[in-house]
Amino acid sequence: MKGCGWELHLYPGYFANLNPEIRDIRYHAFAQMMNKAISEGLGAFLKLSSIKTAKLKKAIDNPLVKILAKINDPEERSKHLVKTIQKVRPHIIHSMEFQSNGYLTLHAKKAMEGKFPAWLATNWGSDIFLYGRFPEHREKIRELLSRCDYYSCETQRDVSLARGFGFKGSVLPVIPNSGGFDLARLASWRSSGRTSERRIIMIKGYQNWAGRALVAIRALQRCLDVLGGYEVVVYLASGEDVKIACNLLSIDGNVKVTVLPPGQTHETILRYHGQARISIGLSISDAVSTSFLEAIAMGSFPIQSNTAAADEWIEDGVTGMIVPPEDPEIIEKAIRKTLSDDEMVDRAAEANWRTVTERLDYDTVKATAIGMYKKIYEECCL
User: Fold this and answer.
1) Global pTM exceeds 0.90
2) Which terminus of the chain is more exposed, N or C, with fewer CB under 10 A?
3) What whole-number distance in Å separates Cα of residue 123 and Cα of residue 132?
4) d(CA 283, CA 236)
5) How many CB atoms lie within 10 A of CB 226?
6) Which of 305, 301, 275 is nearest to 353 (CA)?
């Protein structure tokens, strides 16, 4: 939206500092006076697990703790959002993600019934696909979708799910929530030569409520006989369990395994994808995995879990492999096929690049996003 003449305001649904790369925007942080206190050590002070019982009451009675509790109270945040809306008087409110920002916006709309701006609700990865299966979220999602005016997401799968939850408003174009790519820069970061000549296997290292990096590592352990000459690179490793598994993979298989330290730049990760023959991403829930899009943009052959709408971007067994996230045996077969079939991975890289140029070019995605806001303004605000 930069340079489009729109007045932009950003309201965080939870405490966060503004990324310094985001400019020309008004930031409405709730209780900004807490910034300095929190950054100077309140976070460390609040690790109650390290506070002995005798000190617990003192910790809870601390004024800073009470202020933080107020900040985290949904009702208090909703009241502050209402005041901000009344002050700014925006034409459009765009809530990004359901469980924090969407629910908060729903609270505010209920409090301002009849006086609320046009509301566009966008869901992120697991907002409906996973949380919609939980009784404690199901009704909230249903109410959110019944009260918002417009809906957007990044998969046709989620459009169907939203309709199933009763959304009857206008569905906006399906585009990646992460935006588009500067394709000229990406092309310059891809290694020269064919994908089949590359000798890196990338693994997304999330092992948490959704990520299943350990399953990917287990699948590689079953492929040790064909990993000679390859380097395994793990990025975004989430904990010691992943690092230990990587260490054992290296020891047991005499395979070079590199665990990238935290804080890698986006360019660094993209360049690794641009040197990789395979990029593996496994999770039990997602919308379109951004790392998957990065992999196909950089010419790496994707092995992606069947929970991330990859079928809307690739053809299984032709331009990528779509696998169950928790079955190392099937993932092993996908790895073996990808390592043995040079022609397949080279054809896939060419086909996926065509898809990327058609659907992921920055200017194309930008124009679509701006068009979405213009549509809402013209329909609701003129």
Assistant:
1) no
2) C
3) 11
4) 13
5) 12
6) 301
